Amino acid sequence: MRELWKQIVLAVSLLALGCSSLQVNQDYDIETDFSGLKTFAWKSENQEKTGDIRVDNPLLDARIRAAVQRALTAKGFRKGSTGAADFTVSYVFQIRSKIRSDGVRTGVGFGFGGSGSFGSVGVSSGGDVREFDEGMLVIDLNDPGGSRLLWRGTGIRPISPRSDPAQITADVDETVNKILAQFPPQPQ
After folding, report:
1. Residues 6 or more apart in contact with residue 81 via CB below 8 angstroms
2. In whole angstroms, what is the distance from residue 37 CA to residue 102 CA?
3. pLDDT tens digit string along 20-56?
4. Which of 22, 37, 64, 151 could in theory staple to 157 by disulfide, Cβ–Cβ 3.0 to 4.6 A?
5. What is the rounded CA–CA span in Å between residue 25 and residue 152?
6. CA separation for the pair 65, 18 (Å, rounded)
7. Closest CA to 77 of 35, 25, 131, 17
8. Strand 107-110 vs strand 121-124: parallel, antiparallel, or unpaired?
9. What is the distance between the alpha carbons of residues 66 and 51, in angstroms, rounded to a whole number?
10. Confidence (pTM)
11. Strand partners, 113
12. 72 Cα distance to chain centroid
């Protein structure tokens, strides 16, 4: 019985991990030899303004940049100067409104009373429709001149307004770490 309980807990844990709301992917130049890359620098010291006040936030910019630098440093890359680095880093962050629907549900019900003949029929259709915000973070790694894209990692997740800076930082760190976990790409 104890062994069965362990298997159930393991299965539920794996299911929960598989249902993460953060989706990441990558694309890269298959001609690039990533093994020679050792140093990085930011392509630009200032993040380009988007016109979206939720995105054009210096606190968010600092969190994303710090998370990227920590993730790359943890992988053994060193931060260098823009002119002498092996690759440059840039990012784009967007927030998009999305709509989620549970789909259409239909049902028919019948009921009969105990003292007499009466019945009812009920039909319902439609599902819940909800609007939510989805954040997309794209991290680009370019050649030293910044003109040729070497690698792109993307993370997409539902976001909600938060007033807790520690939770915002944790969400940014998780997103950046999962995106950069794909870098450098493994040879096929």
Report:
1. 41
2. 46
3. 599 999 999 999 999 999 999 999 998 999 999 989 9
4. 22
5. 8
6. 28
7. 35
8. antiparallel
9. 23
10. 0.75
11. none
12. 17
